[in-house]
Specification:
Blueprint: E1 20-22, H1 29-37, H2 54-59, H3 79-90, H4 97-105, E2 156-162, H5 167-170, E3 185-188, E4 204-207, E5 216-217, E6 221-223
Parallel strand pairs: 2-5
Antiparallel strand pairs: 1-6, 2-3, 3-4
């Protein structure tokens, strides 16, 4: 994990993670809408929703997503919304930071999912000039060594871990789960608003768990082998 680019990416170190399953794509608007069908308390605009942003409500007109962006990653979702709502509904969880990085980088320490060198047409970043999210899986040449899509650009993705600037110096080498507490959670992957440096697989951002944004989405993880019901 880590790189030499910024202090909170150091020191570079190896970790071991147990087998897991990770979503091939970020969770889409269509998938999130399916969750909302059976979970009315989480519908945008509900008094129990953790998010009441006007732009979000416009994006989800009357709690429905426009068909034109059904396959785009869902955005405007807070960490709490994701963990207590969608992930719980799917009997899944958010990836730990180490799991997320491993799914993107593989075992050869690559900088981007496709390799070491920047390729602007392999992800949805600022360099591409897009002003909105792109459908998941559109950049097939940007897949990770495990075939995981959209891990650089398009939307930042929530991770399970709390953020601490010096965590890599003290984190365990096996199945690190992040600090026991904090004020913000880790985000990985960069978004369509970011240049090459911010869509590197080692770059992290951090937001408080109640925060949501038009550039933040997520994907889920499940254990392997599957846990018996």
């Amino acid at each position: 994990m880590g790189s030499t680019e910024s202090p909170d990416e150091q020191p570079v170190h190896e970790v071991t993670v147990s087998p897991f399953l990770i979503d091939k794509y970020p969770v889409t608007n269509e998938a999130y809408e399916a969750f909302l069908e059976g979970s009315p308390l989480w519908k945008p605009g509900s008094k129990n929703t953790l998010l009441l942003d006007e732009d979000y409500l416009a994006h989800w007109s009357n709690g429905r997503v426009p068909q034109a962006i059904a396959q785009h990653p869902v955005v405007w979702v807070s960490w709490w919304q994701v963990v207590k709502g969608y992930c719980a509904w799917r009997l899944a969880r958010l990836p730990r930071e180490a799991e997320w990085e491993f799914a993107g980088r593989g075992t050869d320490g690559r900088v981007y999912p496709w390799g070491t060198h920047w390729r602007p047409r392999r992800c949805n970043s600022y360099r591409l000039g897009a002003h909105w999210t792109s459908p998941v899986g559109e950049f097939t040449e940007g897949r990770s060594p495990f075939g995981v899509m959209d891990m650089s650009g398009n939307v930042w993705e929530w991770c399970a871990d709390w953020y601490a600037p010096d965590w890599y110096r003290v984190s365990p080498r096996e199945n690190p789960v992040g600090p026991p507490y904090g004020r913000a959670h880790v985000l990985r992957g960069g978004s369509r608003f970011n240049y090459a440096n911010y869509v590197r697989l080692t770059k992290c951002l951090y937001f408080p768990p109640h925060r949501s944004d038009l550039s933040i989405g997520f994907r889920c993880v499940k254990p392997w082998p599957p846990t018996p019901l």
